[in-house]
Amino acid sequence: MKGTKEFPQCGFSNTVVQILKSLNVPFETLNILENEMLRQGLKEYSNWPTFPQLYIDGEFFGGCDITVEAYKNGQLQELLEKVMCS
C-alpha cells in the first residue's frame, strides 16, 4: 500500500485499512513508496497495476475496488473467517 496501516498515504489505501480494521482481523502492510523495486515487483507478480493490493493467506485478492465490493457483499468477511479458522 501507499503508506502504512498507521498512516495510509492515499485514499484507496485508507479505505482498505478501514475495512480490515472494521473486521477486526490482524494484518500487516508494506509501504511501496519506500522501495521502487518492491513496487514494480508486486505489479508484475500480481499482474495488477495499482495499489493497494490485498493478499489473503499469501494469495493476491485484489485492489481497493475489489476489496470494497467483496466487503459490501459479504464475500470478504466469509473468506477471512475461513482463513482465520484454518
UniProtKB/TrEMBL annotation:
Pfam families to which the protein is assigned, alphabetical: Glutaredoxin
PROSITE patterns per UniProt: GLUTAREDOXIN_2 (PS51354)
Family from the record: Belongs to the glutaredoxin family. CGFS subfamily.
Keywords, sorted A to Z: 2Fe-2S, Iron, Iron-sulfur, Metal-binding, Redox-active center
Single Gene Ontology MF annotation: disulfide oxidoreductase activity
Protein name: Monothiol glutaredoxin-S14, chloroplastic
NCBIfam families given in the database record: Grx4 family monothiol glutaredoxin
Binding site for [2Fe-2S] cluster: 10
SUPFAM superfamilies named in the record: Thioredoxin-like (SSF52833)
Gene that encodes it: LOC104592670
Origin superkingdom: Eukaryota
Tagged with keyword Iron-sulfur: yes
Residues involved in glutathione binding: 2, 39, 51, 64-65
InterPro entries linked: Glutaredoxin (IPR002109), GRX_PICOT-like (IPR033658), Monothiol_GRX (IPR014434), Monothiol_GRX-rel (IPR004480), Thioredoxin-like_sf (IPR036249)
Organism: Nelumbo nucifera
Record flagged with keyword Iron-sulfur: yes
Positions of the Glutaredoxin domain: 5-60
Gene3D superfamilies named in the record: Glutaredoxin (3.40.30.10)
